[in-house]
Amino acid sequence: MGRLELVPKSGLDGGFVVTRNENLRLIWIALVVSGVACDGVGPGEDLVLPSSSSALVEDVTPVATVASRPITAFALRRSLAQHGADLSEKLDGSSKREEALRELIRLEVLAQAARDAGFDQDPEIQMAITRLLADRYLNKIRELNPGAEIVTDEDVEEFYEAHEADYSRPARARASILFLKVEADASSSERDQLRREAEALRKSASSADAMNHASFAALARERSNDAASRRRGGDIGWLPAGVADHRWPGELTSSIEKLKREGDVSPVVSTARGFYVVRLTGLEAGGARPLDEVSREIRGALQAKRERELADQRMDELTKRYPVEIDEQAVSAVGVRPESSPGLEQPPSFPIETPTASKGSS
Description:
The chain is an alpha+beta fold. It contains 12 helices and 10 strands.
């Protein structure tokens, strides 16, 4: 791993940092209040890539101060790079710099007011800062050693050969349906009438001039009561063999599995909801999925595994430098139920209705 250079950055502020933290509002407050926002680093030391002294001087050159706290050239340049598209297209370069600088000054004024009000001591904000610094530290290490976590094609192929059975798929079938719905309050005679209609539709679907998919699709669009599949000419997609599908009744999936050739039409399938006519439109045998189909999935899994292993290794090294002590008694005293954040009002609970006394009761 390459050498890490520790460069003191104490007192350098100004600018915006765009993070991927799930709570952007909290992170923004944390950065502003602590002084970490602005040029992307906070007071104290931070890991940076080795750079020339001239570039470093250029980055920290103050372009403005707010109560003696500097806003740097780097902060202004970062703000323009990240937020330039948000600035008015009618502004020239000089005006865009002025507008970006005004925003940085506004941010620093608010930050100083927040520090004076004690926001930088808020435990939730301090936790947000801690998370940001940890994430930044890990990202910097990855920049210095980008090849450590790369998964090669050979790695993917070797893993695939050793776990080929894990990347098999069952046989599956594709079908189109025509559905006649039976209302819940239908009489026996009404149900019998719908069955006769389903038999007639099956006969039409099985006739010589309706053996092609287009003919069945037209029939489904015209007569089927299943709204979702009707728009697709009755197509319900691929169904894995032997796997229950909550979308369809078991009688239907069992009927599909009994069809052996594309174009076959099932007998009328009777269910509690109504009657189905099914046409088989595709068959695929089960077996191992080819490497080119699963290589991206394998690469992602191996990449994540290596990242976890390297993270664990780094943590082992760092905890030797920074010893950890745990107060088990204090830990056990912490409740497991989530607590409301300080200063955030919780929504009122739903009103509970209480029975009222009836008229005339004592």
